[in-house]
Amino acid sequence: xxxxxxxxxxxxxxxxxxxxxxxxxxxxxxxxxxxxxxxxxxxxxxxxxxxxxxxxxxxxxxxxxxxxxxxxxxxxxxxxxxxxxxxxxxxxxxxxxxxxxxxxxxxxxxxxxxxxxxxxxxxxxxxxxxxxxxxxxxxxxxx
Length: 143
Description:
By secondary structure, the chain is α+β, with helices and mostly antiparallel strands. 38% of the residues lie in helices and 19% in strands.
């Protein structure tokens, strides 16, 4: 059995999850130039077939620009000054993405037509309104 890494309710194989730390931009003073606090979390969907093909397709679609051609989802977290908080933030964001992908898509919307009575009412209102506007005009000689 392959070792797994829990992220939320998901047990992801360690081979499918990669993590690297890079230098972050933004606040932090001298610390930002010395310490690699930003986290780049990679999920290789090809190494995790247990998630299901349909879910993986939805995951890659939801990931958008964060998905690579190779089928990886890359999440970059550099919101905080510490590596631990950025790591937790990246994992939380991945968990949210996995939850969205796991939810079944909503059924397609079936367009509806107005009922016969509603159409008739609309046409009646329209003709009444036209009559009111016609009566506002200048009087004709023949009337």
